[in-house]
Specification:
- This protein starts with a strand and ends in a 5-residue tail after the last helix.
- The strands form two sheets. It has an eight-stranded parallel beta barrel with strand order 1-2-3-4-5-6-7-10, surrounded by five helices.
- The chain is α/β, with parallel strands linked by helices.
- α6 packs parallel to α7, α7 crosses α8 and α10 runs parallel beside α11.
- The chain is built from 13 helices and ten strands.
- Helices cover 39% and strands 14% of the residues.
- The relative contact order is 0.13.
- The longest helix has 23 residues.
Length: 352
Amino acid sequence: MKTLKGPGLFIAQFVNETPPFDRLDSIARWAAELGYKGLQLPTGPGSFVDLEQAAGSQDYCDEITGTLAAHGLAVTELSTHLQGQLIAVHPAYDPLFDSFAAPEVRGNPVARTEWAARQLKLAAKASRRMGLDVHVTFSGALAWPYIYPWPQRPAGLVEEAFAELARRWQPLLDCFADEGVDLAFELHPGEDLHDGVTFDRFLDLVGGHPRAAILFDPSHFQLQQLDYLSFIDHYHDRIRAFHVKDAEFRPNGRSGTYGGYQSWVDRPGRFRSLGDGQIDFRAIFSKLAQYDFAGWAVLEWECAIKHPEQGAREGAPFIADHIICVTDRAFDDFAAAQSDAARNRKLLGLAE
């Protein structure tokens, strides 16, 4: 068995114009002082990672990894969640997702998708240059507006949506394969890949692509009322990344899974800081250790109540306390008997 790496921190929710969150060096120093060992880095416009430079320049990548290393940190993974979302966008969401793209392609869905695909290809090369073997992203969605089967969906609608999703992602998966990097999709509401069934549907259409992987985030399964522990049993061989994020689901007499269009703080299902929700992290870390997951345990902070800096401060020791240093021997080795084939046959009543 292998011991997970961590604690890591996804910094997307922390980057802003206020020090120490305005520069990679200062946010790295802040995270290291809290006890983090790695940072998951968002990429693209407005981030600390320019994918054009990272894909083409080893010196640029070495500068980023060196900045983190100076504070005792590593890059856990690069993220293209926003760009991945733009690989497939239903027209109903065009205005809302346009802000995820570079200014020059906004208002042009075709150009926006082409830009996003190029970003993913650059991310594959950048990941390799940084010595990473996993990249994390979103799948995007064409069928999401039809998630609830009313009005009745016409025959073939979902099948065509997934066929198109697979057509768009197949060459990108091949690009990641060429670079020796796994592409881990965060299964997330709002994405066509949001649970095991949708991942399986997609996986079948891309021919079981060996680089198609999963970013496991139990909070999204808690809000869907999906058994996140059983999910690990089903998909452990595809899980390559792990967001440690808590959530709670407390339905009441007025609202349940759909949330009634309420704000996050009022919804029955909401994300919480680590330890404040209902996720059984002891069981999750045990299962991941059982199945030899050797990746990073990365905090993604999203809480409707607690301040992000408190969440980050509490998150590092929480993760460190849950990481299992796996055993190198069986607990009953002290009572083991030496192997002896003849003795074994005698014990079984098979001796001549």
